[in-house]
User: Which sequence fits this backbone?
């Protein structure tokens, strides 16, 4: 992104990422995967991992590393590039799991290594059926982990688990002895039942996962009860930053496409771009796009620096970007005319991904209220 | 045209300068709470008298005109010094109303295109705190079509005789000199027959009156010129090249509005009315702090305000690294207008009846929200309308075809004009 890719290493990383995506994850690839009923190919994900996509949040001593030394910024850069062709792949679930494991890596070194190499795909099992996202110790979390002699027994149901059917392991949020804990659970463990859930996206898939008396070793726990709230917050921040960065990439591609269309297409003997009514809409969208870029860059920088206002700024960015982007996408459809609502035109590929992200990990309305709550807190504490 | 940023003429580091400023400010300037700035209203003459007095203190202390060249009364330092000073002076009363238009637009333009005498006289007087500079540009007959001015300057012997009218002149009543755009040649297309004059505002032949706005504010003025006489020394730049000068003013105005001018000293809000509404306090005060709908509304306004700050940083950085053109400053101006509308609307929605009927008690101050709503559009009109901003973004940032203009290339005396 403009504000972040300031150093040569990042620019090189961005161009390598772009070249890989153009060659192996173009819009034509996405359509092909969809036609074949495939979410993503695991060999393809391993090649992406070889480019470093899964190593960016992982410190060097755990086998990771990032080109610029700012892993969060580099990860956002990959997400933005992915957005320009709404590429497939488990970058989000793998990154949110790694965000947790790297906060409390003891006993999880092998899992981290397998994730970094792309051999293993893992996902965050955090939503529960028919309930909103909750990362707090309240009634929304009903999955339980019961301590046993050897470890824990997990019971409950999770859903909206991204790439749940393609994942080899899940990071499961559960209630344990009155506190929230997270556990790494292999999807082939006895008592785990995975049912795929379709999404509005062409390639992104989700899953419902039932845990029926699933037993895990004590070492499956990630961090202790005291560490868990901070780990969950870190995961939330990474998930939101990834969504926002990817949407910025989507908007970049779609606005470029639309502005080109307005310039090329003529009606009544003049380009569409010469009509003031349309020009003004393009101007508004340019402004909203740059604002989306600006607020995403602000969130990325805060998360990267682990700044005190990172919880606020990720909610600000998600609220703004996810409120504006669907409106902009639909306006781009309108500006394209009838072709914009055809299967043949690529606009719907982008609209699908944006609609998906608008709702997942908190809607703009949810984040407005989160921002209100954080502002209220800082008001009374001063 | 001279460069506005001169080479620093000091061996003092920014940190040393900041430390010296910190000590001096503590000794010499009144302390304030930056979240609750002192009551200073542009419409009151006493605010300007106070600003001049504060400016004189800054000048005496050697902290005035930080980025203006030394030969015109400034310090000749670069922007980093001014930024450091801005950080230091946040908690002190500063003559903020002198920033725009006097320093950031008028003095900056005179520095670019004024004569040596104009620079020596006017810039240094402004820096000393003796004079205030204003702009006389808009006319009653034309809003956004700035170059379509019909105030005339006719040559008579060795004098220019000015007749016509100007309007929406910001704080002109407080000004000592004004940059005034007039038509000097009617036989050429509109941009080519203009000349900029530097007008002493106490001269005979000028009648000034205040414009009263719907919120009662009387900051803006209109001026009538009836045979005002000016000499050649009043011409800024070249005769019939006034559009070049006006373009510099617009350029400096855009930079100032975006908070990017090195000629502004201090960056706080001028008064409480300029501060955005406190939506959280409003919600709590009206007993709606736990209402999910109100939290959504207020949270949305809070988000927008933070995004505006982030957009300013982003656009500034993008213009600096060349990924956005300089005209992209207009994105900030349009976003500011859009955000102001949302903030004011949100405040009114939360205030409910207390915004339109004085319910007394704790809610007594809330009628201000309703009054503020009445002049909501000022942010979308001042300094060029939002519609003009969208044209600029469409044409100069996105490169779309320009709007058709019936007066393009046509001698101005053949261009159709309205009846009023």
Assistant:
């Amino acid at each position: 992104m403009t504000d972040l890719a300031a150093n040569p290493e990042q620019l090189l990383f961005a161009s390598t990422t772009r070249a890989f995506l153009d060659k192996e994850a173009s819009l034509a690839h996405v359509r092909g995967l969809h036609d074949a009923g495939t979410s993503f190919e695991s060999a393809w994900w391993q090649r992406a991992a070889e480019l470093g996509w899964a190593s960016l949040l992982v410190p060097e001593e755990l086998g990771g590393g990032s080109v610029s030394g700012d892993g969060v910024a580099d990860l956002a850069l990959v997400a933005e590039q992915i957005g320009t062709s709404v590429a497939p792949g488990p970058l989000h679930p793998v990154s949110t799991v790694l965000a947790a494991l790297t906060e409390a890596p003891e006993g999880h070194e092998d899992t981290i290594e397998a994730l970094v190499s792309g051999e293993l795909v893992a996902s965050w099992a955090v939503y529960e059926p028919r309930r909103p996202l909750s990362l707090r110790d309240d009634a929304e979390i009903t999955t339980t982990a019961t301590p046993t002699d050897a470890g824990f027994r997990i019971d409950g149901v999770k859903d909206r688990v991204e790439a749940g059917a393609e994942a080899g392991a899940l990071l499961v949020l559960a209630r344990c002895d009155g506190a929230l804990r997270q556990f790494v659970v292999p999807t082939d463990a006895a008592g785990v039942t995975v049912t795929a859930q379709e999404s509005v996206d062409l390639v992104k898939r989700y899953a419902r996962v039932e845990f029926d008396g699933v037993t895990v070793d004590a070492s499956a726990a990630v961090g202790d009860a005291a560490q868990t709230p901070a780990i969950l917050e870190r995961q939330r921040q990474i998930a939101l930053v990834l969504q926002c960065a990817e949407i910025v990439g989507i908007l970049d591609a779609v606005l470029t496409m639309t502005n080109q269309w307005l310039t090329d297409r003529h009606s009544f003997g003049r380009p569409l771009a010469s009509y003031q009514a349309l020009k003004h809409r393009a101007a508004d969208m340019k402004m909203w796009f740059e604002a989306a870029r600006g607020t995403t860059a602000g969130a990325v920088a805060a998360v990267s620096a682990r700044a005190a206002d990172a919880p606020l700024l990720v909610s600000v960015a998600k609220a703004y970007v996810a409120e504006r982007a669907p409106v902009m996408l639909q306006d781009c459809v309108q500006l394209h005319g009838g072709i914009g609502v055809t299967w043949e035109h690529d606009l719907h590929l982008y609209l699908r991904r944006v609609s998906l992200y608008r709702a997942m990990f908190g809607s703009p309305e949810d984040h407005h209220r989160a921002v209100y709550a954080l502002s209220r807190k800082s008001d009374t504490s001063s | 045209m001279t460069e506005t940023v001169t080479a620093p003429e000091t061996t003092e580091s920014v940190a040393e300068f900041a430390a010296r400023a910190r000590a001096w400010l503590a000794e010499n300037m009144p302390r304030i709470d930056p979240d609750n700035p002192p009551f200073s209203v542009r419409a009151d003459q006493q605010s300007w008298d106070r600003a001049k007095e504060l400016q004189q203190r800054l000048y005496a202390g050697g902290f005035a005109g930080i980025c203006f060249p030394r030969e015109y009364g400034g310090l000749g330092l670069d922007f980093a010094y001014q930024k450091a000073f801005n950080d230091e002076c946040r908690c002190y009363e500063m003559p903020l109303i002198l920033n725009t238009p006097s320093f950031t637009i008028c003095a900056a333009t005179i520095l670019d295109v004024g004569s040596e005498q104009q620079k020596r006289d006017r810039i240094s007087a402004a820096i000393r705190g003796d004079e205030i500079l204003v702009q006389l540009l808009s006319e009653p007959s034309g809003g956004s079509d700035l170059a379509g001015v019909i105030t005339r300057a006719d040559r008579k012997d060795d004098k220019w005789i000015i007749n016509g009218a100007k309007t929406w002149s910001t704080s002109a009543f407080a000004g000592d000199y004004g940059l005034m755009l007039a038509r000097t040649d009617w036989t050429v297309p509109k941009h080519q027959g203009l000349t900029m004059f530097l007008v002493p505002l106490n001269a005979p032949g000028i009648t000034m009156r205040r414009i009263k706005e719907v919120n009662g504010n009387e900051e803006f003025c209109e001026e009538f010129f009836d045979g005002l006489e000016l000499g050649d020394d009043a011409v800024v730049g070249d005769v019939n090249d006034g559009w070049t000068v006006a373009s510099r003013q617009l350029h400096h105005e855009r930079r100032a509005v975006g908070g990017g001018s090195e000629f502004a000293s201090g960056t706080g809000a001028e008064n409480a009315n300029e501060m955005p509404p406190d939506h959280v306090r409003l919600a709590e005060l009206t007993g709606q702090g736990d209402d999910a709908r109100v939290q959504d509304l207020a949270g949305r306004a809070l988000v927008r305000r933070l995004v505006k700050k982030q957009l300013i940083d982003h656009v500034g950085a993008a213009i600096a690294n060349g990924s956005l053109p300089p005209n992209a400053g207009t994105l900030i101006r349009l976003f500011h207008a859009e955000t102001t509308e949302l903030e004011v609307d949100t405040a009114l929605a939360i205030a409910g009846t207390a915004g339109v009927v004085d319910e007394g008690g704790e809610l007594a101050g809330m009628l201000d929200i309703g009054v503020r709503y009445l002049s909501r559009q000022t942010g979308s009109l001042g300094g060029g309308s939002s519609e003009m901003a969208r044209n600029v973004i469409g044409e100069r940032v996105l490169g779309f075809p320009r709007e058709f203009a019936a007066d393009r290339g046509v001698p101005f005396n053949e261009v159709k004009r309205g009846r009023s």
